[in-house]
């Protein structure tokens, strides 16, 4: 069976749901394709992939291509914006701007209130 290599690009460790913990700062683990297929759609894994905290490679890794220049104006998903809230390399105003595209005129001023509003938006049907 083919293998998928998963690399953690952040300083802290990351636990694959139901699987191994990947050490930070470039730690890499290899998992079977079937194991990857079982977790690649998990919301936390998707958020880390979208924020480029995880890099995957292998036969059918299916990692989306990085956005090309000029794609920065596209609205991000709620999970992508929530991932921005915890990213140490994302300025607050970039996070707030992305959140405002989702929340509109009702975007709160404080980070914790924005996060709460995004979490509420994510749970709405």
Domain count: 2
pLDDT averaged residue by residue = 80
Shape: elongated
Strand residue content: 15-25%
What about the largest sheet? 3 strands, antiparallel
- Indicate the low-confidence ranges by residue numbers: 63-71
Q: How do the strands of the widest beta sheet line up side by side? A: 4-1-5
| Strand count | 5
- Radius of gyration, CA atoms, in whole angstroms: 16 Å
List the secondary-structure elements in sequence, H or E.
Answer: EEEEHHEHHH
The end-to-end span amounts to: 38 Å
Counting DSSP H or I runs of 4 or more residues, the number of helices is: 5
- The class by helix and strand makeup works out as alpha+beta
Characterize the quaternary organization of these chains.
single chain
The level of helicity is 25-40%
Question: Keyphrases for this structure?
Answer:
125 residues, 2 domains, 39% helix
